Amino acid sequence: MELKRRVIRGVAIVDASGEIDMNSSPKLRSECQKMFKQKDPKVLLNFTAVEYIDSSCIATLIECMEEMEKYKGRMAIFGTQRATRVAFEIARMDKIFKFYDTEGEALKAIGAAD
Amino acid sequence: MPHGAGKTDVVELLIPSNPSYLSMVRSVVGAFARQAGFDDGAADAIVVGVDEAVANVIRHCYKMRPDRGILLRCSIIPGGIELRLRDFGAKTDPVDIVCARRRRLRPGGLGLKMIKQVMDTVRYDASHPIGNELVMVKFRRRRGRAIARGAGRTTGGD
């Protein structure tokens, strides 16, 4: 799994790629913790190149969302592939997180600066 | 029944309890499910269920020790597939299973919930002198019915 962080119009975007399972989710957790410390107000997770996620990834994302809610931050996910969407559905988390098809839609929805 | 399926349609995979082998398990299970006649969405769901089961063995039975053995046996059965996951680690305490159910949003508890959600039956066999065996069965659905929304009957397992 690879993670790259960039900022577009005031929104932190984390580009993730590969498989996020119990072997690699600690790296995602570490990246999330950096965001909590910085109190990033708006975060988008780009899952376009993520091929697989498991419960450890989903638990990390739940923790991330809960931490962000403490400082009124917002998080959304875009570009999920079929296999990752299936995992969210099985965990019944598809209604908990906000999903968007494209980066443009996600930026607009999360309120990126003009 | 898929083309050529019979009693010999069995694939066994013996892996170390190292999380780096989870990717290999997913590849084998996904290919096996498609070979057994499941469509891509259903095969993806089965992969999730088995991956969570193997991860739970590594996490709970082997306490993250990477040098133990895990045996996965995939069989085509009438109408579906059976997946038997054998470990040689610590016996799973039923109390732990109850506790796991209360920790649904932690990886172990959430994983158990996901296994039940995917599989039609999940049976935990603690009768082996050493270790445990988790027996999971998934049946093919008629066209148009959701595969991932399995109404799993479960008797335990974490």
Keywords:
heterodimer, A: 114 residues, alpha/beta, Transcription Regulator spoIIAA, five-stranded mixed β-sheet, 5 strands, B: 158 residues, alpha+beta, Heat Shock Protein 90, six-stranded mixed β-sheet, 4 helices, globular, disordered C terminus
Describe the protein.
The complex is a heterodimer of chains A (114) and B (158). By secondary structure, chain A is of the alpha/beta class. Chain A has a single domain, classed as STAS domain (Transcription Regulator spoIIAA). Chain A has four helices and five strands. In chain A, strands 1-2-3-4-5 form a five-stranded mixed sheet. In chain A, strand 1 and strand 2 form a beta hairpin. In chain A, helix 1 (25-38) packs parallel to helix 2 (55-70). The longest helix of chain A has 16 residues, at 55-70. Chain A is globular, with a radius of gyration of 13 Å. The model of chain A has no long low-confidence stretch (mean pLDDT 93). Chain B is of the alpha+beta class. Chain B has a single domain (10-154), classed as Histidine kinase-like ATPase, C-terminal domain (Heat Shock Protein 90, 2-Layer Sandwich). Chain B has a six-stranded mixed sheet, covered by helices on one side. The radius of gyration of chain B is 15 Å and the shape is globular. Chain B starts with 9 loop residues before the first strand and ends with a strand. Mean pLDDT of chain B is 83; it is low at 100-104 and 144-158.
Instruction: Give the C-alpha Rg of chain A.
Output: 13 Å
Low-confidence runs of at least 5 consecutive residues of chain B:
100-104, 144-158
Largest sheet of chain B: 6 strands, mixed
- Estimate the helix proportion of chain B, in percent: 25-40%
Reported by name, the CATH topology of chain B is Heat Shock Protein 90
Q: What distance separates the N and C termini of chain B? A: 31 Å
Terminal Cα span of chain A? 32 Å
Q: Which CATH top level class of chain A fits?
A: Alpha Beta
Q: CATH superfamily assignment of chain A?
A: STAS domain
Order of helices and strands of chain B: EHHEEHHEEE
CATH class category name of chain B: Alpha Beta
Largest sheet entry of chain A: 5 strands, mixed
Mean pLDDT of chain A: 93
Taking strands numbered 1, 2, ... along the chain, how are they ordered across the largest sheet of chain A? 1-2-3-4-5
Query: Please, how many domains of chain B?
Result: 1
* Number of E-state strands of chain A: 5
Structural class of chain B: alpha+beta
Helix segment tally of chain B: 4
Q: Which strand order does the major sheet of chain B show?
A: 1-2-3-5-4-6
CATH architecture of chain A: 2-Layer Sandwich
Biggest interface and which pair forms it?
A-B, 19 and 28 residues
